[in-house]
Amino acid sequence: MTSADSDTGLLAPGWAASPAAAETGDGAFLRALLDAEAALTRAQATLGIAPERAATAVTEAADPSLFDLASLAERARAGGNPVIPLVADLTRAAGEEYGPYVHRGATSQDIMDSAMMLVAHRTLGPLLADLDRCRRSLAGLAAEHRDTPMPGRTLTQHAVPTTFGLKAAGWRSLVLDARDRVTAVRNSLPAQLGGAAGTLAAFTAYGADDATALPAVYAAELGLRAPALPWHTLRTPVADLAGCLAFTAGALGKLAADVLTLSRTEVAEVAEGSGGASSAMPHKANPVRSTLVAAAARRAPHLAATLYGSLVAEDERPAGAWHAEWEPLRDLLRLVGGAARDTAELTEGLRVRPDAMREHLGLTHGLIVSERLSAELTPVLGRARAKKLLTGLARRAHEERRELVELLAEEEELKDVDLSPFTDPARCTGSAGELTDRALERP
């Protein structure tokens, strides 16, 4: 039976059972904290300021299954962070001879920050894999529907014709922008090592000939980037994470918002491959994947704002600023990781309905091509006359519910002008096809 107080994502279907959930749970953080502690002892052994046997003993003792999460959480209250009780337990587990090499020279924030970077690095891996799934599926949709005409909408109203291929190519472009930002941030995530006040003083006292070499060795042990300086109060890594995650949520949220609009009953130009059921209405197939992605996009900016707020960190190590980061960063990683999973499923199963798109091009009685007609009639009638004529015909088309092409045919001054190439919306999509091709050249 699942523990009643375990964090299973009951109220968070957007990230529940996702790779991000597995990489951000309390167990994952415990593993990262232990990895950070063991790597520190190994790094000191590499530089000859700790015995190799200590490195082996601490690494073997850093087995998450040997530690009581509930007890660590309860005891963390005394010192304000979980590292303090963890060090006590790991020291005992390493044994009397090698226990003294646990956490030697470090401060709690070194371990907490390094663990946070490890968790982020591990979570961003599957997130990038899901973004790549989106990239592939959207490329297929864009290519397949390169020339599928549909109404372009601005300020909620029909504007001019576009193509679904161009819309899908735009979604893909945002996904690639997100991928590039997440990749850059993931590759730059640094380890943290500075000691009590960021001077590495304790490591010199323990015999390091050059303590400044230790952070790079430590980072290599963790698979993270070597920090240029201790960043206890220089929170660029966390701010960069906040930024790329918030951007990714927004990029995926734009796609979801479009799908939600286009899948409305009265629009029905697209549909999710397998809609969700309603608890009350048997006929409904709700766009659940889009809904969950849209929900994540609404929450992400506020979480990122908390992380940006923590840039204001006083002294060499602050009170409260780094503590404020742990939960919103985890929530961001979970939300965006779940949103990437859901968007991949959404785009892979999206059903496109070209017939509905074509039908909707006629909803304005041909007025959707008025911009193109204005451009074509200006050399014939002059700009002022062309605008006046089309404005009047547009009003009549609305009032009389007649097609614009019929009204144009009744105009004496246009009897010798062939407007047929410019009254078919499908032939008035501008450079949509070429723009789609150009977008698909981006790998």
TrEMBL record:
Residues 390-417 form a coiled coil. Its EC number is 5.5.1.2. It is an enzyme of class 5 (isomerase). Gene3D superfamilies: Fumarase/aspartase (C-terminal domain), Fumarase/aspartase (Central domain), Fumarase/aspartase (N-terminal domain). The keyword Lyase applies. Residues 418-443 are annotated as: Disordered. InterPro entries: AdenyloSucc_lyase_C (IPR019468), Fumarase/histidase_N (IPR024083), Fumarate_lyase_fam (IPR000362), Fumarate_lyase_N (IPR022761), L-Aspartase-like (IPR008948), Protocat_PcaB-like (IPR012789). One of its GO terms (molecular function) is 3-carboxy-cis,cis-muconate cycloisomerase activity. The keyword Coiled coil applies. Residues 365-440 form the Adenylosuccinate lyase C-terminal domain. Keywords: Coiled coil, Isomerase, Lyase. SUPFAM superfamilies: L-aspartase-like. Belongs to the class-II fumarase/aspartase family. This is 3-carboxy-cis,cis-muconate cycloisomerase. The gene is pcaB.
